[in-house]
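User: I'm putting together notes for a lab meeting next week and I want to include a structural view of one of the chains we've been expressing. I don't have a solved structure, so I'd like a prediction I can at least talk through. The sequence is below, exactly as it appears in our construct file.
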Amino acid sequence: MSDKSTAGNMLDAAKAKVNEAADRAREAGHNAAHAVTGDTKHKAEALEDRAKAEVHNREANAEYSEGKREAKDGDGH
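Assistant: Thanks for the context. Below is the predicted structure for the 77-residue chain, given as structure tokens.
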């Protein structure tokens, strides 16, 4: 983590959550396409999107935790 303000960390956490939601939506779309077509390419793309979502989830949690720590240390920076 870089030395960001509490607000900066929270903003980055929110951005990561938006990216996670987009990844999960793409995953669902690929799973639906796989169910309809049986094309294994869609299943592979769904697994890739799931992995990306998990990375974004971890990033969001780390940024949020850092923001909370930053808020508690009293200086907000």
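A couple of points you could mention at the meeting. The chain has a mean pLDDT of 92. The helical segments are 6-37, 40-72.

User: Perfect, that's what I needed.
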